[in-house]
């Protein structure tokens, strides 16, 4: 089920990337924030469930908070930083005239790296920001959490049963 949602997001992201005038610096300055938020907004706004119920994994503390009805101090966190491992590769190809960006390329990155963890604010503060560990194998999506000994529990949730 999650794959179907990611497919739709990949298609919309593809359309957006093809319409951008990458050579116009004023245009790029104006669109940059929206471009950075596009994937997350598409994911969050497309489905009528609270964002803290859209995690793929939950820390033990975050899960307890949600079960008690308290979502204060929780963080919706990309397990693999989306900017570095999804956006930058897609944008790099989209802005080149000699390579062709494909929906399948975007889908592959989303399937591989679009994993959401719900953690507490305190746990989030421990994590390496915006990058994976230098010895990352490009496969272990838990690497940043493992480094800080934050256990993540896979949880089937309302959006993706």
Shape: globular
- The low-confidence runs, each spanning 5 or more residues with pLDDT under 50, are none
Oligomeric form: single chain
Order of helices and strands: HHEHEHHEHHE
Query: How large is the radius of gyration?
Result: 17 Å
Strand content: 5-15%
Helix tally equals 7
Helix/strand/pairing class, anyone? alpha+beta
Helix content: 40-55%
Q: Provide the number of structural domains.
A: 1
Largest sheet: 4 strands, mixed
**What is the residue-mean pLDDT, rounded to a whole number?**
92
In whole angstroms, the N-to-C terminal distance is: 8 Å
Main sheet: which strands, in order across? Answer: 2-3-1-4
Number of strands: 4
What does this structure look like?
The protein is α+β, with helices and mostly antiparallel strands. The chain has one domain (2-154). The chain has helices at residues 2-19, 25-45, 60-67, 82-95, 103-113, 121-126, 143-147; strands at 57-59, 74-78, 116-120, 152-154. It is globular.
Compile the SSE list and pairings.
Elements: H1 2-19, H2 25-45, E1 57-59, H3 60-67, E2 74-78, H4 82-95, H5 103-113, E3 116-120, H6 121-126, H7 143-147, E4 152-154
Parallel strand pairs: 1-3
Antiparallel strand pairs: 1-4, 2-3
Helix pairs in contact: 1-2, 1-5, 4-5
